[in-house]
Amino acid sequence: MDEEGYVYYRSRQKEMVIVGGINVYPVEVENFLLEHPNIAEAQVFGVPDKRYGEALCAWIKQKAGTTINDINEVKEFLASKVAFFKVPKYVKIIETFAPFTTPTGKVQKFKLAEAMTKELPTASA
Predict the structure, then answer these.
(1) How many helices (H) and strands (E) does the chain have?
(2) pTM to 2 decimals?
């Protein structure tokens, strides 16, 4: 609430990612990722990028008993289905989203973005 009494809802402040001036909706990319035979769950979000303002990042969880040998495999899979600017610049394979979820199990993308931003080089280009 601000000093004038206006209340602002901020929990889903920004689902859309703007990559070089183009609007990208993470849910669209997530749906295509889930078509991959080895991906059980995917979360796509934006991270700061010096050149484009924001870049897409995808964290994926593999299906039990499967492996993804190379993140380029995931990028190539997506490149055959979506426009080039919707292919995430960063892809990370994780075991669980648990540290980044609410008590009810919803993944908090802002926490994923914070964690990923700490891992990125300071001059991402």
Answers:
(1) 3, 5
(2) 0.83
